[in-house]
């Protein structure tokens, strides 16, 4: 039946082209569409962009874009097999790297008064904690398994007493010229300093809290400069 209808349609189409040469192309296409709709039950698509076959291509492109985004933001310490790995930084450029981190050690009034008066039995809390923070920064790769062993060019650890809220504010800075950042070194410095404050004061109180360990600022590397919003 289909072949018979097609055979009937095609001669008529030829006659249409021959007899209506004066008609413009749009009119001819409209007539053909009507004949196609009569034979097949629907008119052909008016344009390629409106066809249903173009939709999967668009979806595939969108999926590919999402997949690329996931690839760019993946965790670098996880291999394609899901195993822990140390990142290969051999291809990275050498640049100046600086990171600043901070934390707080909440003492409470009783311990705060002892520290500020340098009356803690173990000795000068702030001085010992400062040295511990500097030492900790230099030992970061031994404490954090997948950190690189970095040649640090500078480490700074400052401890300040806050009399309004009875806490010690600690700030640490690490610097290097190399292929990987020093954020972990700065954060390790303030963490070790905070732990040392706790150790020096724990005989006076067990209620001491170490809080807000965080990165404040970084310079250098592929991701560029970054600062925490105040």
UniProtKB/TrEMBL annotation:
It catalyses: (8S)-3',8-cyclo-7,8-dihydroguanosine 5'-triphosphate = cyclic pyranopterin phosphate + diphosphate. InterPro entries: MoaC, MoaC_bact/euk, MoaC_sf, MoCo_biosynth_MoaA/MoaC, Mopterin_CF_biosynth-C_dom. Residues 86-221 form the Molybdopterin cofactor biosynthesis C (MoaC) domain. It holds the Pfam family MoaC. One of its GO terms (molecular function) is cyclic pyranopterin monophosphate synthase activity. Residues 43-66 are annotated as: Disordered. Keywords: Lyase, Molybdenum cofactor biosynthesis. Residues 46-66 have a biased composition (Polar residues). It is an enzyme of class 4 (lyase). Pathway: Cofactor biosynthesis; molybdopterin biosynthesis. GO terms for biological process: Mo-molybdopterin cofactor biosynthetic process. Its EC number is 4.6.1.17. HAMAP family: MoaC_B (MF_01224_B). This is cyclic pyranopterin monophosphate synthase. It comes from Deinandra increscens subsp. villosa.
């Amino acid at each position: 039946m289909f072949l018979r209808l097609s055979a009937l349609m095609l001669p008529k189409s030829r006659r249409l082209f021959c007899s209506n040469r004066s008609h413009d192309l749009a009119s001819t296409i409209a007539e053909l569409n009507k004949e196609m709709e009569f034979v097949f039950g629907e008119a052909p698509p008016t344009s390629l962009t409106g066809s249903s076959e173009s939709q999967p291509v668009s979806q595939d492109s969108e999926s590919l874009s999402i997949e690329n985004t996931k690839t760019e933001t993946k965790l670098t310490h996880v291999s394609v097999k899901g195993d822990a790995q140390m990142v290969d930084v051999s291809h990275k450029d050498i640049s100046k790297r600086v990171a600043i981190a901070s934390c707080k050690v909440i003492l409470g009034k009783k311990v705060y008064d002892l520290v500020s008066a340098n009356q803690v039995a173990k000795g000068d809390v702030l001085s010992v904690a400062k040295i511990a923070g500097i030492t900790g920064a230099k030992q970061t790769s031994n404490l954090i398994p997948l950190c690189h062993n970095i040649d640090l060019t500078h480490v700074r650890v400052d401890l300040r007493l806050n009399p309004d809220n009875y806490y010690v504010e600690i700030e640490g800075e690490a610097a290097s010229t190399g292929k990987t950042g020093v954020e972990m070194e700065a954060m390790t410095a303030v963490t070790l300093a905070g732990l040392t404050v706790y150790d020096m004061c724990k005989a006076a109180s067990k209620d001491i809290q170490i809080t807000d360990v965080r990165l404040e600022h970084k310079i250098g590397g592929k991701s560029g400069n970054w600062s925490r919003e105040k």
